[in-house]
């Protein structure tokens, strides 16, 4: 199987200078390394072209317009030649062998993808239902484990299945919950997501969203948390619980009405999510708690 590594970038020249060479040399299994640049204005591509002279495996795709993480990642996966696609944030540094350690899982045709173990934060994803919402929390193990979702910047997926489910849902733009949503849709469609502790990466966390403003980040996170429920839950009892808890959130903070209205605007302006619905939402929640 051919393997493509995709590095998403937006105005990240400072991290590319630190880590791009290491990503390339730590990914000898890859047939190509794609830097997908989301219309950066900081000379990221100019720097990458210098690296490309020494490492011709590196390919650069520069978008003329800023689309955000999800859309940019989906575009790159479509352009990738690999059967398997590694998804990396630009501030993530993989350890040698991280790809090889994940490959055995793809012998199972039902495996959608494999999540990497971030050094110092070695956990898989758990989800459960509480207070009318889908809740997430880390799960810990030193062995391979099922995971509720794959990090959009620290995982490897089957290109065919990723595109079959439409990739990251643009309803969540600019960020938050798109990888949780994709994980839920993959499990509901009868696929498996695996976390592999031997696929080790360092996440340097040098790209900060803080410059976007705390209030904006809270708004997007709350809106997308509600959207994740409305896009993935069909059970009437759970939806009634969600309505009740929406009402309680309005009572505790009237501004939550703006969150509800924003979520419904997103719902009405985007097509229905893609999934095969082989399992119910209740079954998926029970499996992954």
From TrEMBL:
Keywords: Glycosyltransferase, Transferase
Sections of the chain in a coiled coil: none
Residue span, Glycosyltransferase 2-like domain: 4-161
Name the UniProt record assigns to this protein: Glycosyltransferase 2-like domain-containing protein
InterPro entries per the UniProt record, alphabetical: Glyco_trans_2-like, Nucleotide-diphossugar_trans
GO molecular-function terms, A-Z: glycosyltransferase activity
PANTHER family hit by this protein: GALACTOFURANOSYLTRANSFERASE GLFT2 (PTHR43179:SF12), RHAMNOSYLTRANSFERASE WBBL (PTHR43179)
Top-rank taxon: Bacteria
Taxonomic source organism: Candidatus Shapirobacteria bacterium CG_4_8_14_3_um_filter_35_11
